[in-house]
Structure formats: structure tokens, C-alpha cells
Design brief:
36% strand, 133 residues, 10 strands, alpha+beta, 5-stranded antiparallel beta sheet, single chain
């Protein structure tokens, strides 16, 4: 007499833990005409929209022009690092130096002034409130 062996599925449930901040993407690859440039996200000061192109402004004054729209970069880059302050600007939070309330502009640590739109002002102020003591 043959005996049937019943096979029970083996399931191991693993807990899902969020990635630590140090493991989040720290680099970004940008395809240019003749090369793919790899940029450390900490070196980006801000990104500026120029129609269907994006200017990526880096520390040290270097500028890279990409054929990717600012909207696509805004969707890709972490809100932990970057904040949209204007339809045409996405800035690295670590490059912020001050906010000129009377002029509605942010000043980056390299003295570059970036306009803040009325529609993005509330989000910026909420972020700045988290930094206040």
C-alpha cells in the first residue's frame, strides 16, 4: 500500500524594516551626449528648469544641463534632501542659508538667491519650522 506524503508549504515571514538614511541613494546618474555623469547628491546646490531641460548647479560653480524635466527630477529625488520652492527651482535642503521673508527668496550658502513662489511658500515655511529651536 502506497502512502501519500502531504507536503506543507514552508513560509518564513520576514519583518520589513525601513532602510536607514545612510543607505538611501546618495548618487545620481545623468546621461549626457557622450557620457554618463555620476553626481553625488550632496554636491547639488539646486536644479533649475529651462523649458524641457534642467540645469543642475553644483558646488564649485559647475553646471550640467540635462534633457530631463525638473518635474521628473522632483519625482526621483528624495524629499528628505530636496524641496521644491518654485515651479522652476528644486533646492538641496543642506544648501539653504536663509529665507528673506520680505523678498520671498531663499539664499543658499554660496549667496545665490532663489525665488519662492506663493504656492510653495507654505511647504518651505513648514520645513523651516522643523529646524527651529
Amino acid at each position: 500500500m502506497e502512502t501519500e506524503t502531504q507536503v506543507r508549504p514552508f513560509r518564513k515571514i520576514l519583518p520589513i524594516t525601513p532602510l536607514k538614511k545612510e543607505f538611501l541613494n546618495k548618487k545620481m546618474a545623468i546621461s549626457l551626449r557622450s557620457q554618463i555623469e555620476i553626481i553625488d547628491l550632496d554636491k547639488i546646490l539646486y536644479l533649475k528648469s529651462d523649458s524641457n531641460y534642467t540645469e543642475i548647479h553644483l558646488k564649485g560653480g559647475k553646471k550640467i544641463v540635462s534633457s530631463i524635466t525638473l518635474k521628473r527630477y522632483a519625482n526621483k529625488l528624495s524629499t528628505d534632501r530636496f524641496i521644491r520652492v518654485h515651479q522652476s527651482y528644486l533646492i538641496n535642503k543642506s544648501s539653504l542659508s536663509s529665507y528673506l521673508t520680505n523678498q520671498n527668496k531663499v539664499v543658499l550658502y554660496n549667496s545665490q538667491e532663489i525665488p519662492v513662489s506663493n504656492s510653495k511658500k507654505e511647504g518651505l515655511l513648514n520645513y523651516l519650522k522643523t529646524l527651529m529651536v
